[in-house]
Amino acid sequence: GGSRRLLLISNSTLHGGGYLGHCQQHIQSFLGQKVKRVLFIPYALHDRDAYARTAREKFESLGYGLDSIHESCDPVEAIRKSEAIFIGGGNTFRLLKALYDNSLIHEIRRRVLEDGIPYMGSSAGTNVATISINTTNDMPIVYPPSLQALGLVPFNINPHYLDPDIKRTHMGETREERIRQYHEEPNTPPVLGLREGTMLLVEGDKAMLQGVTGARLFLR
């Protein structure tokens, strides 16, 4: 992981702001001036055309061109030629299944971990950057061949993490309880509960929280 550069965002939209508005300065700082075009992966949402339009509009406003992988006739070749990769949010199961279906798992890992191209994810795109999607909040609306994900970091993340609310009357499990249930299983990795408004910047073997809301680290 010596050359790895990741920006893992908890959420793409923060209350009161627009798409990626709360983290746009972090994105510009992360991508810098060397990157000219970003390859967007919209597989987490059903309407990929509309999703790509939203992402393209935002990244062009920040000074970057954007190509969407679903518009390419050869997704693997698109990954091989990309300067930077951004995987957007939506349903994590749908996203991971599409990554497997298009034979992109190995190629993304190679470009990020060996070639050192920047990788950005938000929500589901952050989930798939980790060891597995076992700690996603999403419903399994489709069935990927495995829950193992890209493994760009040696832990899992729970995006949109919510702290327990002592005033609540809802009796379902809290996020904290669900993550602790996960850790009751053997050989489960640490889980970073990433609150909305927070992102994790990974450079080599160093990870730094950015944003204002912080995170919780759960260890088995």
UniProtKB/TrEMBL annotation:
CDD domains: GAT1_Peptidase_E (cd03146). Its EC number is 3.4.13.21. Its main location: cytoplasm. Keywords: Cytoplasm, Dipeptidase, Hydrolase, Protease, Serine protease. It is an enzyme of class 3 (hydrolase). Hydrolyzes dipeptides containing N-terminal aspartate residues. Belongs to the peptidase S51 family. This is dipeptidase E. It comes from Nicator chloris.
